[in-house]
């Protein structure tokens, strides 16, 4: 997921490697695997939300509280995570993040046994807290693990593995989390209904407990390597609230765009399983699509699973994230040939058009339009990020921290999206992310034309 992979350049704790500190490839491989891991775990929220919505008879706004609990962790934990990296160093902080992440996943067991939605929300917050620490430590660490001249290539490789995790995650989540569909058997007896919910909730916990076990092993590996020589981390975390930053229109508008982008991307991904399950979207087509998925798995692994409509819809969410992954390759070419502001504007306008079109249409065309938004999303986060940080000089780390805090849009906008879906329907609620993309398009257009977003080259930046 973009917000999990593109926040490296000025994250708290970022520091160049000292001369001669070049750990071997094994450590780089371990750190790169972290990017895959948190990308994979983050997108498991998409099928999980569809399951929890039915399990606890939630409306869409209540179901989106799962993303609120998750992404509020970015806002709350980012600054303490930066301080932890400064105090404990990269490797110890990675071990800490993995441990907290594993603890959050283990909380799915009591949440399932008690069948309590607030306990699931607590578990998601803990997982997000661990992921935030991993981001703050691993992004600058992978950049520093080797010669400075190749830092960008290492970070790009790590981000590619993150994107691979976001592509695979929804498919695996659909296989296990949605294997029994989303419906909970109705019962006139409260006791029988509670028992049915507990039984259904237990089917959710299995993949999370398996991942927790793997993360605990990962934690032990990094803890064993905690005294290994390597690049030093910064002694303190940036301060993103300096007055000089608040007077930078390019940065502040960029912060607003990161907020709206992450909110739009997460809203669409979170509601996509339920959206695709609607009879007017894939409906009867779920059977042949499911047969296609089953045939694919049979060829790959010999397994011949049966797909219910929830699994079909959940697996199709992989296309949303996968198209974003593929779009990065094309985006890397177009961004070299055209002004980043123009590319951003065109991508955002395309995403808005697809969202507005799907909000008024139905059938496979609407499904294809929503899935294609992932392709339009592909270059937005890194392009907004780099445009916002232009010419910040010594304030780059502080500006980057402020931009990273704007990821909290993934907590706020999905709830607005859910409330809109409750009021006017899930399809029409796509108007919410559509409007978000218009904000981003205006930023790209202004940046391309230099209107109101630059200080004069001879005008000194305001002092704090």
Summed up, what is this model?
74% of the residues lie in helices and 0% in strands.
Tell me the radius of gyration: 22 Å
Helix and strand element order: HHHHHHHHHHHHHHHHHHHH
Poorly predicted spans: 4-23, 455-464
Judging from the principal axes of the Cα atoms, what is the shape? globular
The number of distinct helices, counting runs of at least 4 residues, comes to 20
The biggest beta sheet reads: none
Beta-strand portion reads: under 5%
User: Given the helix and strand composition, which structural class is it?
Assistant: mainly alpha
Spatial gap, N to C terminus: 35 Å
Mean pLDDT: 84
Helix content range of the residues, please?
A: over 70%
Task: Present the secondary structure layout.
Blueprint: H1 2-5, H2 25-43, H3 45-55, H4 60-63, H5 65-88, H6 90-106, H7 108-114, H8 117-144, H9 151-177, H10 190-224, H11 243-246, H12 249-277, H13 286-301, H14 309-337, H15 340-360, H16 363-377, H17 380-389, H18 396-405, H19 409-424, H20 431-449
Helix pairs in contact: 2-8, 2-9, 3-9, 3-10, 3-12, 5-6, 5-8, 5-19, 6-8, 6-10, 7-8, 7-10, 8-9, 9-14, 12-14, 12-16, 12-17, 12-18, 12-19, 12-20, 13-14, 14-16, 15-16, 15-17, 15-20
């Amino acid at each position: 997921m973009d917000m999990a992979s593109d926040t490296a350049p000025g994250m708290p704790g970022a520091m160049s490697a000292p001369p001669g500190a070049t750990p071997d490839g094994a450590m780089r491989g371990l750190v790169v695997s972290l990017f895959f891991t948190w990308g994979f775990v983050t997108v498991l929220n998409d099928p999980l939300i569809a399951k929890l919505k039915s399990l606890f008879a939630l409306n869409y706004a209540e179901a989106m509280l799962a993303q609120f609990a998750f992404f509020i962790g970015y806002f709350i934990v980012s600054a303490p995570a930066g301080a932890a990296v400064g105090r404990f160093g990269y490797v110890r902080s990675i071990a800490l993040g993995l441990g907290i992440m594993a603890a959050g996943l283990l909380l799915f067991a009591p949440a399932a046994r008690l069948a309590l939605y607030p306990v699931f929300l607590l578990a998601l917050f803990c997982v997000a807290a661990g992921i935030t620490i991993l981001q703050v430590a691993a992004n600058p660490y992978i950049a520093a693990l080797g010669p400075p001249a190749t830092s960008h290539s290492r970070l790009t490789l790590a981000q590619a593995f993150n994107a691979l995790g976001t592509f695979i995650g929804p498919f695996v989540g659909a296989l296990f989390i949605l294997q029994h569909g989303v419906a909970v058997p109705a019962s006139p007896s409260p006791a029988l209904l509670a028992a049915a919910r507990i039984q259904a909730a237990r089917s959710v916990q299995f993949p999370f407990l398996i991942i927790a076990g793997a993360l605990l092993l990962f934690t032990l590996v990094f803890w064993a390597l905690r005294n290994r020589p390597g690049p030093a981390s910064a002694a303190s975390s940036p301060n993103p609230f300096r007055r000089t930053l608040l007077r930078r229109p390019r940065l502040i508008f960029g912060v607003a765009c990161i907020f709206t982008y992450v909110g739009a991307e997460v809203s669409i991904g979170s509601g996509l399983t339920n959206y695709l399950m609607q009879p007017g979207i894939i409906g009867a087509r779920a059977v042949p699509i499911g047969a296609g998925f089953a045939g694919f798995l049979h060829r790959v692994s010999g397994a011949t699973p049966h797909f219910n409509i929830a699994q079909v819809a959940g697996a199709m969410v992989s296309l949303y994230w996968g198209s974003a992954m593929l779009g990065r390759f094309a985006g890397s070419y177009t961004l070299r040939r055209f002004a980043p502001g123009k590319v951003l504007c065109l991508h955002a306008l395309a995403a808005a058009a697809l969202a507005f079109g799907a909000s008024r249409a139905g059938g496979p065309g609407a499904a294809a339009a929503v899935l294609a938004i992932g392709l339009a999303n592909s270059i937005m986060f890194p392009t907004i990020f780099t445009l916002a940080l232009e010419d910040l000089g010594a304030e780059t780390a502080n500006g980057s921290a402020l931009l990273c805090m704007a990821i909290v849009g993934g907590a706020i906008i999905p709830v607005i999206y859910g409330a809109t879906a409750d009021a006017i329907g899930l399809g029409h609620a796509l108007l919410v992310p559509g409007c978000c993309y218009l904000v981003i398009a205006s930023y790209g257009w202004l940046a391309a034309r230099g209107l109101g977003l630059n200080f004069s080259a001879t005008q000194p930046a305001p002092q704090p």
